[in-house]
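Changelog excerpt

This revision adds worked examples to the README so contributors can see how folded entries look when concatenated. The first example is reproduced verbatim below.
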Amino acid sequence: MLEKNLQSLNEVIIGSSRPDVAKLLSRLKRDGRVKRLAPRIYTTNLTDAAESIIRRNLWTIAGNLWPGARLSHRTAFEYAPHDGHVFLSYKYTRIIRLPGVTVHFLSTPASLESDYPFLGSLGVSSLARALLENLEPDKTQGNVAKCQDAETLEARLEAEFAAGGEEALNKLRDDARTVASQTGHGREFDRLDRLIGALLSTRPARCGQP
């Protein structure tokens, strides 16, 4: 029954400390029915490259190996690797390299009620929190940009204005103020406040128009 259950899963199987699971995976690997992609990560797909398998199952893998992690910084906007890198907020700061993807873990304040659920045990930073994270002064993690550039963030604010007008931006500013008080992003909130103020000062009031 255990073997049937394992092989009925998707193409990726996550190893376990359970002796029966470990023993079964060892036998399946020895028999050439699964292959090991990385520590604790196995697949029944014996033909595709490890990089391809990891990438298309990345969030399933992350949710099983690092439950409670949260997509943060640029990954909270992109939901996918950027130049092969993703950024997750977790209980420690570390870099883990998988075939085709490098996972950057950032030790940050715990998830908030305002953050969003994503997939399984994974969460994702709320829009307000993601904007603050992307305005952090230290833009790199392991020589890789963890934050989107200023032009991209300004374009996101433009999109919020286009969708909901001044009311939407003011609500976003209020949400960010609350988040900043919980996460210590005071300086980042000041920057966001200035960006929103500058945007509103250059856009005519919509007067309730769609």
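The second example, added in the same revision:
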Amino acid sequence: MTQVDPGLAARHARLRRGYGGTPDPDDSAQVLAMPIVLHLPKTEPPARTALLEAAAAATIALCLDPRVDTGGPWHESFDAWMNGRIRKVARRARGAQWRAVQDADGVTVEVDGAQARAFVPCPVGELDPRIKRLQIGGTDLEHDAPEEPPPDLPLLWVNSSLDMTLGKAAAQVGHATMLLAGQLDLSAVLDWSRRGYAVAVREADSRTWALACDEVARGRAVAVRDAGFTEVAPGSMTVIARR
């Protein structure tokens, strides 16, 4: 029988309990958000799909990192974030900017040369200056045409009809990995952790999206429904994830 780290079991249980319940603070500067930084070098930028896959994996890797355990250095901030609205804000960096943010608390994942780093959630008014100076909008990446997704990886379908920017899509696939991990049983999460939380991200056309929605209705997949703070209407389904 496979031995499971009790810490991983506790972290997985935290994700299964879900989030929310704590209202937003009156002071908007105290709203909690998880920063995500995407590495977008000026020359030879990565493929959009690979960068979204890196962002998705970095998010769940941080959520299941031992440092979020009770007594760990990230626990208090992470738990407070989980108790409220789950917000993520993606920014972009290149060169010295990217190297500088590696010293801020977080987890970096690389996929096919694409790199993304998820950081410990914090109040938006207290964001590390190295992250705060980075641009949120701006540079995007062309949609690419990746191969068929590997059958042995979790699959995240992105709703192409919403035409989300790269940063918005990065936040949404991060949400999706959290919901998916909460749905999976512990043994599946353990197997996933051994693969570095690798995922396949693909754009869904209208037919594929309809089929994915049917999987959600049957309880075979989970959907991210956006709160509507940016870009899309409240309640929009942005990403659907399945094992």
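Reviewer comment on example two: The chain has one domain: 6-242. The chain has a mean pLDDT of 93.
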